[in-house]
């Protein structure tokens, strides 16, 4: 986080999910911090979508709820370009279904590392089954599976997901980029 604070220009527009995040980021010296609901920036329409960074049971524990925080996704739309839905740090919920139905994205980016927290069998983000689920909910979309391998509480690796995707026969619909890889659509 310190590297980002030092690297990102203080006048660069930053979009955040709520007023609490806005205050924190402004306190770090950033001048143009905007709470996102819906905005157009340089010809790209950004729309905030909902989600939840864990299960309802997790959110009933105040300390865990505070640590998990609010979750949001973003849909990016621009004339002549693919519509991209970045689901964010969420489990699969009705908000994800709604975003797919409403925006009909061409590309869906899912955090699929199946991150676990102590004391729970359920994940705080999506896993490999959610990758398959996305291909069924949006059969014409490309699914980009990210947020694996880099953090110690992830329980799904790229290799495991690649095997799963192949077993399900959806390898033509799912992309699993390596760190630093750039994808173009």
From TrEMBL:
<keyword id="KW-0378">Hydrolase</keyword>
<dbReference type="GO" id="GO:0016787">
    <property type="term" value="F:hydrolase activity"/>
</dbReference>
<protein>
    <recommendedName>
        <fullName>Metal-dependent hydrolase</fullName>
    </recommendedName>
</protein>
<dbReference type="InterPro" id="IPR050114">
    <property type="entry name" value="UPF0173_UPF0282_UlaG_hydrolase"/>
</dbReference>
<dbReference type="InterPro" id="IPR036866">
    <property type="entry name" value="RibonucZ/Hydroxyglut_hydro"/>
</dbReference>
